[in-house]
Design a protein that fits this description.
Helix content: under 10%
Structural class: mainly beta
Strand content: 35-45%
Largest sheet: 10 strands, parallel
Number of strands: 50
Number of domains: 2
Shape: globular
CATH class of the largest domain: Mainly Beta
Length: about 500
């Protein structure tokens, strides 16, 4: 058995054995102390509550490839900055540095009052950045020399104004010399104010995107609405979005921004709805008909959801909703799991324009079958099958392994191992205990062809179990002496949350 543990753990689980979960505040009093103690691949898991004071503002990732994640989402986990910024990414972070599920409020600073990304490119998901004020660009989020991905975030009611610069840009989001991706974000109620004292002009109440050399910023399925600039005597423009010609804006709604929703670089937009813009090609200029729903005020009016009129933004995007995805590798969310409808039916077929809200998705599970065999096997292998890579309350969950025996005779005495890896803690099926276990007693021999093994029977995913990501299942056959993996092994990464 020691040989088996060395093979399975050393070969196919080596990348995750050292990962740990550091809990705030039960293990570490502040979010910063949790990050300080973390090493690459760890997760800092933050319980619901309001976090303020030293250690819970100006939170610095330190270049670590870690995930800082709330247990129950942004509505229940609030960082009240009071004095200072929310999060700082300033040490060459990559998208292996993940921030997920926080409200960041009342930030202040000289640019990037909510989140500052400087020479760094993290993944920021499912966050709300609100009520922050900056004396320079990017009151909500400021990126410089960055390729950050900002996905499924709400950036609202932030304000930028000039303290000593000759201009100020981007009340919601500002990216300089960057190639960031804004995907499925709602940017609303942000302002930029010009300064009479410093003769500063004001630009881009919502979003400013300035591209890096030989690259471009990208904005996909975002709604930019209700943003503005306040011009004193020194000018300004572009209440909604200002961008370079190489910026790519697709499937977005730019509407009701003051004084206008887009600068004159109209060649950067496709499949968008833009107020006071000459419609043509793939773009339209039509009232999006926003309606209020359970999570906010920017759902789209749709007759199938009970409204009397249909928004022209419905089914008017560039491709299928299932093709537009974002998030951590192996745990991507796609827009066909989210909704623009007040009845919370998910978007299917051609994607709707604009921001999509969370939806109580029901996943159809892979049908469970009794063990059967067939001759259709080209090589000996195992295949894990689950309904999804991400589960929310009400989803169906099950796990099945297909064993393919490409030999002409039964594989007798070749045990099947299925191992659940929860942040380095190993549980062996079918007992799912920490004691090494396998399916040899149940399947002493696998006949030629394919045999389906039910590992976890179908059940409905419950509520109240928090959030998790990066949970692994591994499946492999070994030889009868437990000295080598036999054939091709398989793995499946999954997670869960409240939406």
């Amino acid at each position: 058995m020691k040989k088996l543990f060395g093979i399975i753990s050393g070969i196919i689980i080596c990348t995750s054995l050292n990962a740990a979960v550091l809990q705030v505040p039960s293990d570490y009093a502040t979010i910063q102390s949790g990050i300080d103690a973390a090493i690459d691949t760890d997760t800092v898991l933050v319980a619901p509550g309001q976090y303020t004071g030293e250690g819970n503002r100006n939170i610095y990732f330190q270049g670590k490839a870690i995930s800082v994640v709330s247990e129950t989402g942004a509505d229940n986990t609030v960082i009240d900055c009071d004095q200072g910024r929310g999060f700082l990414f300033m040490n060459n972070e990559t998208r292996e540095s993940v921030l997920k599920g926080f409200t960041i409020a009342h930030g202040s600073g000289d640019g990037g009052a909510g989140i500052l990304c400087w020479d760094s490119s993290p993944l920021i998901m499912d966050c709300i950045i609100t009520d922050s004020a900056s004396t320079w660009d990017g009151a909500g989020i400021l990126c410089f020399n960055s390729s950050a991905m900002i996905a499924s975030c709400i950036v609202r009611d932030n304000s930028a104004y000039s303290s000593d610069a000759d201009s100020v840009w981007g009340g919601g989001v500002c990216a300089w010399n960057s190639s960031i991706t804004l995907m499925n974000c709602l940017i609303t109620g942000n302002t930029v104010t010009s300064s009479e004292i410093h003769y500063a002009t004001a630009y881009a109440g919502g979003v400013m995107l300035n591209d890096a050399d030989l690259s471009s910023n990208t904005m996909i399925n975002c709604t930019v609405t209700g943003n503005s600039i306040t011009v004193n005597d020194f000018g300004g423009d572009f209440g909604g979005v200002c961008c370079n010609p190489t910026t790519q804006i697709t499937n977005c709604i730019l509407w009701d921004n003051t004084p206008n929703s887009l600068d004159d670089r109209s060649d950067c937009v496709t499949y968008c709805n833009i107020e006071d813009h000459t419609a043509g090609g793939t773009n339209i200029s039509s009232d999006p008909l926003f309606v209020a729903g359970v999570h906010g005020s920017y759902y789209l009016s749709q007759t199938d959801a009970g409204q009397t009129v249909q928004s022209l933004c419905v089914d008017s995007g560039s491709e299928n909703a299932s093709s537009i995805c974002f998030g951590e590798t192996g745990l991507e969310k796609c827009l066909d799991a989210l909704t623009t409808r007040t009845d919370e039916t998910v978007d299917f077929g051609i994607v709707d324009m604009g921001f999509h809200y969370a939806a109580p998705v029901t996943v159809t599970p892979t049908p469970t079958s009794t063990p059967t065999s067939s001759p259709a096997c080209d090589q000996t292998s195992v295949e894990l099958r689950l309904p999804s890579h991400y589960f929310v309350p009400g989803n169906s969950f099950s796990c099945q392994v297909s064993v393919c025996n490409a030999e002409s005779t039964p594989l007798a005495g070749y045990p099947l191992f299925v191992i659940l890896d929860v942040y380095g803690q190993l549980f062996f099926a079918p007992s799912f205990s920490s004691t090494v276990d396998n399916y040899l007693l149940s399947y002493a021999a696998f006949p030629p062809g394919k045999t389906d093994v039910d590992v976890i029977p179908e059940f409905t995913w419950p509520s109240g179990v928090g959030t998790a990501s990066g949970i692994y299942l591994y499946a492999a056959l070994t030889d009868p002496d437990y000295t080598a993996i036999y054939g091709e092994w398989d793995s499946w990464v999954f997670g869960w949350g409240d939406f």
